[in-house]
Design a protein that fits this description.
The protein is an alpha+beta fold. It has 18 helices and 14 strands. The chain has one domain: Cytochrome P450 (Cytochrome p450, Orthogonal Bundle).
């Protein structure tokens, strides 16, 4: 069997040809002889993935430590085992191989869609997303759905969303608590949900939006429970009932809220269908999508896609904003430089660099969506077999001192005038499933930072950095970014062009 080998400079479309050229060690076009020169030029045979180091820690302990402090555990594993190693954080255990080298991740991103699947990598968030949305689709189904949804976040639609998000930031920030110590993350999360309303519903939200927003935010609080990582869709009903009876899991309240959210979303879908007023928002596009037989998407399918964007487009953005203010409230020199730029109002180079640096230090998804190996593939001289999972670590790569000197330091200037490389800076993932809303997320983050720093001073009583903690599949500051917003007194800033 020919095994795809991904090397520097190749694309996914090159793989089929490269596989047949590299898959067999014998040159069938020659006379059968092998010279020492040709043997020396031939790459060494791939080692099996099973030969890679295995994290020596019981599965349950790995799961617990990963939940409590995911970045610490992964850093310890890399220091002990190197740039490629196997972990076990699933029950039943499945081989999960962590990749941290740029060339390995590039090869993973460029692998053919029938070789590496991502659908099963979303099992942790199935409780929110269901199983029919973009996050669960692979190969041609994924490509088609992604192509249809892309216009809802790009081009002229992006301009509309950006205008709405900027206005929302001004109105929302004005309502936040001031002159008292407050955890900002809950306010940032609510802002993110409001911003996603513009993406999903367009300029006119459904009549049930206020209640739906409250329910969705209530559901997101389940992410603070260890139970949020449970794969309840794989459990027998009796086990789910038992877990619901244990109130500390938070599962019962979550499922009740989910039932209400489903009802409200269906109500919103039907309201839009009956109105016949379809625009360029995501719901309008979803209503217009048909299956191969010409039938429209079922309400449940539309619901799954809407929930996917709500969970993916809010938890990550809120996490990034929480980390931005966590760093800026402690790094006074960087914050002062950013405030001066915002006050001048003629450029946003340092603001852009600040966002890049925050997303490098604390990528909202520290480990990107796992890929399941469907066909044998060779990456970096290692052969991975069907049934194995590949897990690229954005966090570990972003903290590689070879790529980023002094990687633990908050230094936005490292990105001044520089566009981050697609394979060494991956807060939005990469390849064919790279985040569709990355431009919207970046704009949201910049809009809120600009509004907060033009209006308030960031004040902290406790200068000790907040540690990362798990929040679904993201990481957020352990105390939710506790600080005080003190109103600024100064002359109004110049308007940006």
């Amino acid at each position: 069997m020919n095994v795809p080998k991904m090397t520097q400079g190749e694309t996914a479309d090159d793989v089929s040809g490269a596989a047949s050229a590299n898959g067999c060690p014998v040159d069938h076009g020659a006379d059968g002889s092998t010279s020492p020169e040709s043997a020396a030029a031939r790459p060494p045979p791939a080692i099996p993935a099973t030969a890679l180091p295995v994290a020596q820690m019981p599965t349950v302990m790995q799961m617990w430590k990963f939940w409590k402090s995911p970045t610490t555990l992964m850093t310890q594993f890399r220091e002990r085992y190197g740039s490629r190693f196997q972990i076990s954080i699933r029950i039943p255990p499945r081989p999960v191989y962590v990749l941290t080298e740029p060339e390995d991740l590039k090869a993973m991103f460029l692998a053919p869609p029938d070789v590496l699947h991502t659908g099963k990598g979303s099992v942790t968030i199935e409780k929110w997303t269901g199983q029919s949305g973009l996050a669960w689709l692979d190969e041609d189904d994924h490509k088609r759905r992604r192509r249809l949804l892309m216009p809802t976040m790009h081009g002229k639609v992006l301009k509309r969303i950006e205008a709405s998000v900027a206005d929302l930031a001004a109105r929302d920030v004005a309502t936040w608590p001031r002159s008292k110590i407050t955890a900002l993350h809950p306010y940032l999360q609510r802002y993110a949900f409001k911003a996603m309303r513009e993406v999903v519903f367009g300029p006119v939200g459904p009549s049930c939006w206020d209640e739906l927003a409250d329910v969705l935010i209530g559901m997101s609080q389940f992410s603070d429970h260890l139970g949020s990582v449970m794969q309840i869709h794989k459990m027998p009903p009796a086990m789910v009932r038992l877990l619901r009876a244990i109130r500390s899991t938070g599962l019962d309240n979550f499922l009740k809220l989910r039932q209400r959210a489903d009802a409200l979303i269906i109500e919103a879908i039907e309201e839009r269908r009956k109105s016949g007023e379809l625009g360029d928002d995501m719901l309008s596009v979803l209503i217009g999508i048909t299956h191969e037989d010409g039938s429209p998407l079922a309400n449940a399918e539309v619901r799954d896609e809407m929930m996917t964007i709500f969970i993916a487009g809010t938890s990550t953005t809120a996490a990034a904003l929480a980390w931005a203010f966590e760093y800026l409230s402690r790094e006074s020199a960087a914050c002062d430089r950013l405030v001066a730029e915002i006050d001048e109002g003629t450029d946003d180079a340092f603001l852009t660099a600040t966002v890049y640096e925050v997303l490098r230090l604390r990528p909202p998804l520290p480990q990107i969506i796992p890929r399941e190996v469907m066909k044998p593939i060779e990456i970096g001289g290692v052969r991975y077999e069907p049934g194995m999972f590949l897990w690229g670590s954005a966090y570990l790569m972003h903290h590689d001192p070879v790529l980023y000197p002094d990687p633990g330091a908050f230094r936005p200037e490292r990105f001044l005038g520089i566009t981050p490389d697609s394979y060494t800076w991956i807060p939005f993932g990469g390849g064919r499933i790279r985040c569709l809303g990355s431009q919207i997320a970046t704009f949201e983050i910049k809009a809120v930072i600009r509004e907060v720093l033009s209006t308030y001073q960031l004040c902290r009583v406790d200068r000790k950095p907040e540690e990362p903690r798990s929040h679904i599949v993201t990481i957020i500051p352990s105390k939710g970014t506790r600080l005080e917003l003190q109103p600024r007194s100064r002359e109004p800033k110049m308007a940006m062009d």
